[in-house]
Write a structure and sequence with these properties.
single chain, mainly beta, five-stranded parallel β-sheet, 1 helix, 11 strands, Qnr family pentapeptide repeat protein, 5peptide_repeat, Pentapeptide-BTB/POZ_domain
Length: 215
């Protein structure tokens, strides 16, 4: 029988590889460099509310892993190998994904990204220098997220909430932004080539420039 709480533990390299892990609270645990390929975490918490610290997934192997209905707030995912990672219906406020890799590099000129992050709270999360091109990233809350130097080109960002968000700091060309609350997006300063928005959104964006869209 699985314990319901694991505290201050260095997780073994292959301890959870490929497993389904459900309903466990991990407090200040170290998952760094562990192999979590194809591991499924369901209804788990990795956030210590009393000490306001998360778990460490630095340089972990997260290929095909998933977090569903989990609390990964302020967890550290720096330099993780995260191709195909799924984060669904999670609390991820302040989580640090900077320099994580969602890419499969085939050659110096051929590569692709894969990630499924949806219906999650990503407020104040750090995605700086992350490549999330052509990924499924819909229905998320991006309030105050750090996306400096990141690329979301071609991704589905529909249904998102983007208040207190710096649109100028990342590449959003070709993105689907339909049904999103676009916050302070200024179409004069952000490259929106190929971006999809609804007529109502276009009216709101144009209104900021003093233009009335009719019909």
């Amino acid at each position: 029988m699985e314990p319901q709480m694991v505290e201050n533990k260095r997780i073994g390299v292959n301890e959870f590889t490929g497993r389904i892990v459900s309903g466990i609270t991990f407090l200040d645990c170290d998952f760094s460099r562990t192999d979590l390929s194809e591991t499924q975490f369901v209804d788990c918490s990795f956030y210590d509310r009393d000490r306001q610290v998360g778990c460490n997934f630095r340089s972990a192997k997260l290929k095909g892993a998933s977090f569903k209905r989990c609390d990964i707030s302020v967890c550290v995912f720096n330099f993780a190998s995260a191709l195909g990672l799924e984060i669904s219906e999670c609390k991820a406020q302040g989580a640090d994904f900077s320099s994580a890799s969602f890419m499969n590099v085939i050659s110096s000129k051929s590569w692709f990204c894969s990630a499924y992050i949806n219906k999650s709270n990503l407020a104040y999360a750090n995605f700086s220098k992350v490549n999330l091109e052509k990924c499924e990233l819909w229905d998320n809350r991006w309030t105050g997220a750090n996306v400096m130097g990141a690329s979301f080109a071609g991704s589905d960002l529909s249904g998102g909430e983007f208040s207190s968000f710096d649109w100028r700091s990342a590449d959003f060309t070709g993105c689907d932004l339909t049904d999103s609350a676009l916050g302070d997006l200024d179409i004069r300063t952000v490259n929106l080539d190929g971006v999809k928005v609804s007529r109502d959104q276009m009216s709101e964006l144009a209104a900021l420039l003093g233009i009335n869209v009719l019909g």
